């Protein structure tokens, strides 16, 4: 269908990109973006764009993607713990300053014929349009004002702050810093020749012990928490190489995951962070917003009415968003529990990191970064790295011996007799999250057991939860931990073994 008048509330990446795509598809339409801030408001630092996102954007609009790539900064990825660094080759990882991205998207929208109005806050009731796109961000007033969207917002337990520094790190890094108050982890990546994003997170106890509850309270909304920035500059001195941490309304926050029962109400549709958020550790917020725009444009082109298009948009888009939000939630929980994994050798920590959310399996990691992946697997199996990976890595992993206080095992496949042993505590793990109260009660039970054998539903989400509960047990007890895994989830079992999420596995039919 052709739309005549479209109003877009919010000139972030989602709103600007949607406006451009819709204008390209509907050249005669009157499309206006209303942005409450000025065009050059600098909020935020860099934004990452992975290779698959670049492919999707290229298919939708090669011109704007070329403009983005021309100003983006390519980098690699590594994890650093102490003196050890695991470097992951990753050629297509791009980052760009959020301000640069916005200025490119503003230009691209204008070139297409979109009208941009800055410094004006709008709400749907004021706008006379066939379609209102509410891309008004995580704090969307449109979403809050209308219960029809059925919004649900959950808050993560950890705290993070978003800052930057004035030099380009050699690669994206994940680096923990242990201080007298606890552990802080930085996710940092370069996004320009003289800039890197620094995202730092910690747990609430460490945050309090360091006195950041006070500095957070004392920081005005328009200021940065300089007390925290000074402290973190010292904590991450090695990584920062003497550079400062730069704030921009930088303060400690807790991540909010937004989900909505419905993304549209009448002719108003939510897009991007207004509709859904995904934890920053999977670097997908901007991608999701821009891919929403692609789906909305396609739905409008293929439908006869606005109403039909909004149903189609949600039908096509929701499964991908739900899937990514699930991955993001696992990733968030992994990072929130990161300090418990500090004993793993850094090579294995890299395996645990890559496979943390069940998105990347060991095979894919081996394909994309054979050296790093094999180093981790060899470290797990006490093998000589120079020997190179075996042909069948899964069989090799499962075939490793295990020496444990509970006994010696020829392979990582648990013998059936172990389950029947009277000292084995067979526990059914049927939890909504590996971190909820029910899961914690099971973890407590493992402390009083010599061997725990975790069983439960066969669906993959449950298997991943089971492995996460098993990991918690391995970290907090001396028990031998066995996990039941259906054959269909064998790659998860193998990834779990090398990442310290199970001592042994039992692979069922
Ligand atoms: C710490 C952190 C790190 C992140 N790192 C990454 C990353 O590496 N990669 C990535 O892809 N994403 C990242 N994100 C997420 C990313 O910033 C957002 O997901 C993305 O900007 C969402 O785009 P959007 O267009 O939906 O909303 P936004 O970019 O939030 O834009 C919304 C716009 O609407 C405007 N607005 C709001 N209300 C009104 C109104 N009533 N009238 C007019 N204008 C209004 C706001 O001023 C704003 O400009 C990160 C987020 C955080 C918090």
Give the topology.
Elements: E1 5-9, H1 13-25, E2 30-35, E3 46-49, H2 51-60, H3 62-71, E4 73-74, E5 77-81, E6 84-88, E7 94-97, H4 98-112, E8 115-118, E9 131-134, H5 141-145, E10 151-155, E11 159-165, E12 172-179, E13 182-192, E14 195-202, H6 204-209, H7 212-218, H8 226-235, H9 237-240, E15 245-246, E16 256-260, E17 264-265, E18 268-270, H10 285-302, H11 306-336, H12 346-354, H13 362-368, H14 370-380, H15 393-398, E19 402-404, E20 407-409, H16 416-420, E21 424-428, H17 437-446, E22 451-455, H18 460-476, E23 480-486, H19 490-498, E24 504-508
Parallel strand pairs: 1-2, 1-9, 2-8, 5-12, 9-18, 21-22, 22-23, 23-24
Antiparallel strand pairs: 3-7, 4-7, 5-6, 10-16, 11-14, 11-15, 12-13, 13-14, 17-18, 19-20
Helix pairs in contact: 1-4, 1-10, 2-3, 2-10, 3-4, 10-11, 12-14, 13-14, 17-18
The structure holds flavin-adenine dinucleotide.
Structure, explained:
The protein is α/β, with parallel strands linked by helices and 509 residues long. It has three domains: 5-44 and 52-73 and 92-153 and 256-333, 3-Layer(bba) Sandwich (FAD/NAD(P)-binding domain); 159-246, D-Amino Acid Oxidase, Chain A, domain 2; 343-508, no CATH class. It is 40% helix and 23% strand. The protein is built from 19 helices and 24 strands. The strands form six sheets. The chain has a seven-stranded mixed β-sheet. A hairpin with a 2-residue loop joins strand 12 (172-179) and strand 13 (182-192). Helix 1 packs parallel to helix 10, helix 2 (51-60) packs across helix 3 (62-71) and helix 2 (51-60) packs parallel to helix 10. It is globular, with a radius of gyration of 24 Å. The N and C termini lie far apart (50 Å). The site of flavin-adenine dinucleotide has 31 residues, from helix 1, strand 2, strand 3 and helix 10.
């Amino acid at each position: 269908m052709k739309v005549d008048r479209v109003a877009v509330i919010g000139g972030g990446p989602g709103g600007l990109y949607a406006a451009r795509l819709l204008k390209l598809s509907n050249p005669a339409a009157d499309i206006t973006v209303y942005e409450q801030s000025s065009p050059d408001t600098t909020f935020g630092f860099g934004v990452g764009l992975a290779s698959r996102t670049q492919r999707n954007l290229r298919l939708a609009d090669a011109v704007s993607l070329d403009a983005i790539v021309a100003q983006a900064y390519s980098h690699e990825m590594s994890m650093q713990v102490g003196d050890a660094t695991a470097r992951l080759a990753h050629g297509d990882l791009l980052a760009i300053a959020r301000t640069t991205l916005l200025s490119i998207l503003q230009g691209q929208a204008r070139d297409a014929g979109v009208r941009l109005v800055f410094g004006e806050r709008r709400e749907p009731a004021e706008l006379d349009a066939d379609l209102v796109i509410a891309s008004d961000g995580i704090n969307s007033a449109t979403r809050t004002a209308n219960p029809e969207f059925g919004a649900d917002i959950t808050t993560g337990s950890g705290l993070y702050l978003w800052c930057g520094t004035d030099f380009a790190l050699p690669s994206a890094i994940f680096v923990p810093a242990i201080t007298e108050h606890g552990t802080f982890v930085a996710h940092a990546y370069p996004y320009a020749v003289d800039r890197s994003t620094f995202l730092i997170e910690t747990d609430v106890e460490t945050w309090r012990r360091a006195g950041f509850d006070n500095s957070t309270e004392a920081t005005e909304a328009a200021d940065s928490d300089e007390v925290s920035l000074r402290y973190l500059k010292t904590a991450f001195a090695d990584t920062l190489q003497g550079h400062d941490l730069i704030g921009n309304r930088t303060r400690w926050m807790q991540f909010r995951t937004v989900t909505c029962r419905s993304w549209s109400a009448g002719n108003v549709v939510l897009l991007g962070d207004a509709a859904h958020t995904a934890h920053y550790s999977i670097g997908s917020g901007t991608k999701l917003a821009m891919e929403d725009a692609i789906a909305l444009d396609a739905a409008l082109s293929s439908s006869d009415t606005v109403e039909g298009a909004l149903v189609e948009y949600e039908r096509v888009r929701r499964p991908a968003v739900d899937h990514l939000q699930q991955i993001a939630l696992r990733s968030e929980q992994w990072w929130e529990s990161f300090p418990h994994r500090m004993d793993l050798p850094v090579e294995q920590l890299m395996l645990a990191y890559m496979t943390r959310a069940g998105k990347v399996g060991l095979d894919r990691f081996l394909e994309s970064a054979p050296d790093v992946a094999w180093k981790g697997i060899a470290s797990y199996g006490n093998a000589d790295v120079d020997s190179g990976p075996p042909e069948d890595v899964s069989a090799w992993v499962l075939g490793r011996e295990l020496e444990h206080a509970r006994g010696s095992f020829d392979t990582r496949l648990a013998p059936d007799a172990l389950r029947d042993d009277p000292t084995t505590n067979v526990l059914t793990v049927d939890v909504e999250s590996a971190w909820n109260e029910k899961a914690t009660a099971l973890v407590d039970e493992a402390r009083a057991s010599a061997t725990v054998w975790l069983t439960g539903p066969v669906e993959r989400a449950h298997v991943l939860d089971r492995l996460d509960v098993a990991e918690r047990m391995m970290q907090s007890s001396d028990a031998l931990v066995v996990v039941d895994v259906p054959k269909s989830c064998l790659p998860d079992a193998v990834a779990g073994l090398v990442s310290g999420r199970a001592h042994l596995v039992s692979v069922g039919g």
